[in-house]
Specification:
2 copies of one chain form a homodimer.
Chain A lengths: L11 H9 L3 H10 L5 H8 L3 H13 L3 E5 L7 E5 L1 H4 L2 H14 L8 E5 L6 E7 L11 E5 L5 H20 L1
Antiparallel strand pairs in A: 1-2, 3-5
């Protein structure tokens, strides 16, 4: 199975993955954290082949990272939703993203930065003494365009922010 | 290319990797962090096929995670040494390890724990506000047996500690 190169995506996480393996699964989890739930949404936003996406989604459901549910607005469609186990991958993704920012930058700075919603401050993954710090969860943070964001990245983040706001208004 | 299953290793990181992809590269980096430098050492300790190991080591050298150097004691052998870029993968490995501890535990607790050398305290990967905490580097920590360590894991950690002490004594 030949896989698409991640190297050309405007995403430091994807660039890091290009170095260290075959990571569609984490890319799907990343996309789910942005609020994507439908097969076609993953397919379009990740540029992943349908058969590969099917295999990976099934596997993520099997291992309990995602659940498959009928869509609330149209039960003919399935939706893939992160479980607690899946949401808990945030520090892994953040660590990879940060590493990619640091080592695979193209001189134009990070495409995206993770910021704390409450304060607007950028957050960092790090190894700390347990007694220090106060870990942040998925609810606490948002991904914002960084200095290296392309217009496509900005558009996508804006679209995700709209979806997020809609979901909040619905809830 | 069929890959060996990680699931049976006594290592939460490996168990996490079994869920989320094809990660020999990170397993090699983990082994390099434990002080392994020779091809045969990686081969034996990871149980990886020689042809796969060759491919992954070449790739890790190519992307600048490892360097290939003549061995100090016998220049006929090559040694693979982590670069700054490779050492900086510690938070990624720690985050995966922690996730594996939390979600792929077999009820017997973590096989290994990362502890701060200076204090003996367990450390945690987490997403924190940048102003908080004080990140720990590879030099600051050591991997110790956890409650779920098998005797094989204990033996390996003891062997690694011996190698580490020898390296320190040499240096």
């Amino acid at each position: 199975m030949k896989r698409t190169s991640f190297a050309d995506m405007n995403c430091s996480l994807a660039r890091a993955l290009e170095d260290v393996g075959e990571w569609w699964s984490l890319m799907i989890v990343r996309e789910a954290m942005y609020g994507t739930r439908r097969f076609d949404g993953f397919c379009e936003r990740l540029g992943i082949a349908r058969n590969v996406l099917t295999t990976r989604l099934n596997r993520l459901v099997e291992v309990g990272v995602l659940t498959r549910e009928p869509a609330a607005d149209d039960p003919r469609f399935s939706e893939y939703v992160l479980t607690a186990k899946g949401r808990d991958l945030l520090p892994v993704l953040a660590a990879l993203l940060h590493w990619g920012d640091r080592w695979r930058s193209r001189g134009d700075g990070p495409p995206v930065v993770i910021t704390e919603i409450a304060t607007g401050r950028e957050v960092q993954p790090m190894l700390v003494r347990t007694v220090e710090g106060d870990p942040l969860d998925l609810e606490d943070v948002v991904v914002a365009p960084g200095p290296g964001a392309t217009s496509q990245t900005r558009d996508r983040l804006a679209e995700r922010a709209r979806r997020r706001d809609e979901a909040t208004a619905d809830g």
